[in-house]
Amino acid sequence: MIELTDLINGYTYMPDNSLWLSKDNEPGLILRNFHFHKRDIEQDLPGIWRYKKTFALPDACSMVGFGEGMSPIAELEIYGHSIRVKQEYLFPTGSYKDRGAALMLSAAKTFGISEILEDSSGNAGCAVSAYAAAAGISCSIYVPEKASEAKIRQMELYGANVHKIAGNRQDAAAAALQQAGSTWFASHVYNPWFYEGTKTFAYEIWEQMGEQMPEEILFPVGNGTLILGTYIGFRELKASGLIDKIPALSVVQASNCAPLCGSSRFSATVAEGIAVQKPARHKQILHVILETGGRAISAAEEDIVQARKDAAAKGFYIEYTSATVLAGLKQFNPKPGILVPLTGHGLKNN
Question: Is the model's pLDDT at 167 over the cut of 90?
Fold first, then answer.
């Protein structure tokens, strides 16, 4: 079993079989020091597997996937800003969560796991269900009762056993945690293998943009699976001498649920994918924001709804959660060369 490192305190520990929690009850991450070179990119492998030499998996590991990776980067003029957008909604299940699911399910298959458990408000459940189907692994997903019906149907069609839990996103997470002791917890929040997948977002930006690396990346954030994975990837690239500094990593949340912005307010939001009252990795996300010189802002509901319409008018059909980050551009002047991930497909809200 691989060692995990606590991002805040820096100590290492061996994960248990379910929650991967440290002695301080914090979920750990796989943070290693190694040197990666351009020649280490495996051009003959599909998608994110081109970075296989960076993954903390055995050489003979299972590679579960559909060729996901290398999402295109495009230009978008919006609200008086010229920005770059990385189109993560073009992944096989319609969101960037495929990055993490591909690595996590590859790890599960490599380790001989036959059954997994996950909790999700939607996109992660869809991704985990699809990759579990590809791996031939039985999958159960716990979702809040008011989760998107389109996403629930997607999970069920992949063959997942979907359990609707009364209450909100936190209630679904609590119900899953109660069951996690007896089943391999394929949690996009707790499982460190998920972040081995999302870190490829950083590697792709470095490879696609070269010397034109963004000064800032603005993420829609709930549990922080993309911003934390991106930090790990850039951290590895910097340690390898391939970049001079990590871009400022900033977050946008819906005003109705913005704990990273210091708000205790919570009410329903159209951005259901980031409606997380108490992120399990709250301290780690704030650590990354502060270390990289990022910032945390919130966007009003009406701005999120309008941003989705405005993005579609430019040809980008995204879900409300993705539109949140565009709505955030109304709140501040972005740094030159800002990049924004468009994280989920618009069909997710139908």
Answer: no
Fold held by 98-191: Rossmann fold (3.40.50)
Q: Please tell me the distance from the alpha carbon of residue 228 to that of residue 31, in angstroms, as a whole number.
A: 11
Q: Among 125, 115, 134, which residue's Cα sits nearest to residue 46?
A: 134
Across 49-152, where does the E strand assignment appear? 73-78, 81-86, 115-119, 138-144
Domain ranges, ordered by start, for the chain: 73-96+194-349, 98-191
pTM of the predicted structure, to 2 decimals: 0.95
Q: Which of 126, 139, 119, 153 is nearest to 280 (CA)?
A: 119
Q: Are strands 73-78 and 81-86 parallel, antiparallel or unpaired?
A: antiparallel
Q: Residues 6 or more apart from 6 whose CB is under 8 A from it?
A: 12, 13, 22, 24, 26, 28, 29
Question: Which residues are CB-contacts of 167 (< 8 A; sequence separation ≥ 6)?
Answer: 144, 145
DSSP lists the bridge partners of residue 305 as none
What confidence tier does 171 reach under pLDDT thresholds 50, 70, 90? confident
The reported pLDDT for the residue numbered 15 is 77
Q: Which of the residue ranges 63-67, 207-211, 292-296, 341-345 would you say has the lowest mean pLDDT?
A: 207-211
Is residue 256 within 8 A of residue 269, CB to CB? The reply is yes
